[in-house]
What we know:
Layout: H1 9-15, E1 20-24, E2 30-37, E3 40-47, H2 53-67, E4 78-82, E5 87-91, H3 102-114, H4 121-124, H5 133-145, H6 154-166, E6 172-174, E7 183-186, E8 189-192, E9 199-201, H7 204-207, H8 209-212, H9 225-243, H10 250-265, E10 292-293, E11 296-297, H11 298-312, H12 320-336
Antiparallel strand pairs: 1-2, 2-3, 3-5, 4-5, 6-9, 7-8, 10-11
Amino acid sequence: MELRLPFGDGLQAVLGEPRSFRRLSSSPRSRVWRVELDRGPVVVKQIVGGADAGERYAREVAALRIASRAEVPVVPAVLGTEAGERVLVLRHLEHRRPSGDWIVGYAEALARLHACAGPEVVDVLPRWAGPDEGDVGAFLRLAEALEASVGSGVEAELHALTGRLGRASGQALLHGDPCPGNDLHTADGVRFVDFEQASWGSGLMELAYLRIGFPTCWCVTAASASRLSRAEGAYLAAWRAATGSDGWDGAAVREGLVEACAGWLIRGDALVQRAHRDGRDHLARIPDEDWEWGTVSARQRLAHRLGVVGRMAAGHPALEGLGALSREMRRRMLARWPGIGPVPAERP
Length: 348
């Protein structure tokens, strides 16, 4: 049965009556339509599903309103809302196939998005939440299941890491899921959509997506070292231009990215799509099963993340034990499951 388009009298009074509409693909937690109005095409999004639907709607509306202040646009214009139906109407933007160097423009836009936040962000959005003690325990149990040697100081390193991530400074506007598919590459630059998980915190937690492989996303990629360097440089330059402040020096960026990537590594929920993040220990599933999500399998995701952290944490005084453990866990995974291949270098 065709779903009713949630475009009521209030929206019609402001925007006019829809001439036609069609459903677009979306997650199970939202419904999205392309709608033709006299003024041109718009996108209608309704947030549905789960006891947190109201919270996700409030986050998205708040984040879009904050982001709309950017001097260079980073989100589609919000044309109307209907809180009772949890509906947003956004200007339709034409997405073009990203170039091979897409992460450079993406990183610039991400920095401008992060820089949008003012002091009020702490009142209208929750603080970014990192891994917790449960994630530490689950990761160490997986290491034991893989028969990796857990050094005497690793557990203390991980507990200290979760504490530092929880206290990380910064009041950036964080997207919450800044992944391929939530970025529109238009003729006028990159725009972000789908802010249901928006929060505030350190922008390095999302800049780390480029290295750790988009941990909350169906589309995992591993960019070359040269592209990563250019993208991270573009992010920092755009941050300085938008804020008038350096914000981080080179050492602080390297330190922050190592810790952000380590945080994403130990989060088992980052092995499954959001609709399946139900409190289950997904790391505990790895020894007995593998599952596909998007471009890679769960074991591919984990092996990639272990490799990233193993390299980045080498010689890091506060995470040297985790680096060694990550390298050993990856070796043992590849020996046990030799079919694990590298993640794609390019997005689909």
